[in-house]
Design a protein that fits this description.
41% helix; six-stranded mixed beta sheet; Adenosine kinase, small domain; 13 helices; 2 domains; nucleotide-binding; UDP-N-acetylmuramoyl-L-alanine:D-glutamate ligase; alpha/beta; globular; PfkB_dom; five-stranded mixed beta sheet; single chain; kinase
Length: 308
C-alpha cells in the first residue's frame, strides 16, 4: 500500500524517519495506515508485493513466462485483497509506504509469511520446481526460516543458481552468521550500498575489497555480486576461478521520479531477464538499470505498460 503525503506530520507522530525500513507491530502499522488514509485518501494505492513478488511480477511483465512464486498469506481481508490483485494483474503480510517527495518510509508486518513450512516444499510436487535455472531468496524470508534456506542450498545449490537479496540493514544486522552462510552458498548476491556496508561491518571485514577477497578465497563457486546505490554507479563484482573483477556501471538520471519503492526489486527482475538469456553480467546490469528506471516513474512497483 502506497500513500503520497505532503509533509512529515504522520511520520513524526509515530517516530518514523524519512527513509526508515523496518518491521513494526501490526497494531501500530494499522494506526499509521488509518491516519494516512483519512488524511490522504486520494493518493492511496494498493499494490501487490513485497520484494520477491515484485520481482516475479516485473519479470513476467517483461515477457518471461516461466515464473513461480512461493509464499503464504493469511485468511484475512489483506490476504483476499492480495490474491485478487495477483489474479487480476498477472493477519497477511502488510507493507505501508509513505512517499514524501524523494523519500520513502517503509513499515511492515510480516504476518502469515512467517508461517511457511518446510513440508510445503519437501514434496514430490516441488521436485519439478528444482529444475529452475534460478532460485531467488529474499532477505525478508531468512528470519525464522533459515532452516528452509539451508534445505534449499542442499537441494538446489548443486544443480541450479541460487540468488539472495540482502533487502534491509536491520535484517543483516540481526542475522550475521546466516548471511555469511548464504553469501558463501549463493551464486548471485544483490543489495544496495547501505546493506552491503552493514554486512561488511557486522562480519568484521575492514572494507568491501577485503570482504570480496575472502569470499573468493573461501568458495569454489563463481559468483556475481551487484551493489546498487540509487542514481550513483552500480558496482558489478565478478568472482571467477577465485579471481575478482570489479566494474562500475553508470546510471542515467531520471527526471520524473514518482516512487523509488521496489526499484531494487525491478532491477533484479531486469537482471534475471537478461541472465536467463545468457547475456553477459555487464548486459544484465544494464537491463536491470533500464527496468528500474522505468518503474520509478510510477507509484508502486510497476512498468508503465502494466498500468494500461
Amino acid at each position: 500500500m502506497s500513500i503520497a503525503v505532503d509533509d512529515e506530520s504522520i511520520r513524526m507522530k509515530y517516530n518514523l524517519k524519512a527513509n526508515d525500513q523496518l518491521e513494526i507491530p501490526i497494531e501500530t502499522l494499522m494506526a499509521v495506515k488509518k491516519d494516512a488514509e483519512e488524511r490522504y485518501q486520494k493518493t492511496v494505492q494498493f499494490n501487490p508485493g513485497g520484494s520477491s513478488l515484485n520481482t516475479c511480477r516485473i519479470l513476467r511483465a517483461l515477457g518471461e513466462e516461466n515464473v513461480l512464486f512461493c509464499g503464504s498469506v493469511g485468511k484475512d481481508v489483506n490476504g483476499e485483497k492480495l490474491l485478487k490483485l495477483i489474479q487480476e494483474r498477472c493477519s497477511t503480510a502488510v507493507c505501508l509506504c509513505l512517499i514524501e517527495g524523494s523519500n520513502r518510509c517503509l513499515i511492515a508486518n510480516i504476518g502469515a509469511a512467517f508461517r511457511i513450512e518446510l513440508s510445503w516444499l519437501s514434496s514430490e510436487a516441488f521436485d519439478e520446481v528444482c529444475l529452475a535455472r534460478i532460485f531467488y531468496i529474499e532477505g525478508y524470508f531468512v528470519p525464522e526460516r533459515f532452516h528452509i534456506c539451508q534445505w534449499l542450498v542442499e537441494k538446489i545449490g548443486k544443480t541450479g543458481k541460487l540468488a539472495i537479496n540482502l533487502n534491509a540493514k536491520y535484517i543483516v544486522e540481526s542475522l550475521k552468521e546466516e548471511f555469511k552462510f548464504l553469501l558463501k552458498a549463493c551464486d548471485l548476491i544483490f543489495g544496495n550500498t547501505s546493506e552491503f556496508s552493514t554486512l561488511i561491518k557486522v562480519s568484521g571485514y575492514t572494507s568491501l575489497t577485503s570482504c570480496v577477497d575472502l569470499i573468493a578465497k573461501d568458495t569454489d563457486k563463481d559468483k556475481i555480486l551487484v551493489i546498487t546505490d540509487g542514481e550513483h554507479p552500480v558496482k558489478l563484482i565478478e568472482i571467477k576461478n577465485k579471481v575478482v573483477k570489479l566494474q562500475e556501471i553508470q546510471v542515467e538520471k531520471v527526471d520524473n521520479v514518482q516512487d523509488t519503492t521496489g526499484a531494487g526489486d525491478a532491477f533484479v527482475a531486469g537482471f534475471f531477464f537478461a541472465y536467463i538469456r545468457d547475456r553477459s553480467p555487464w548486459e544484465c546490469v544494464q537491463e536491470g538499470i533500464s527496468v528500474a528506471r522505468r518503474t520509478i516513474t510510477q507509484i508502486g512497483c510497476y512498468l508503465p505498460e502494466m498500468r494500461k
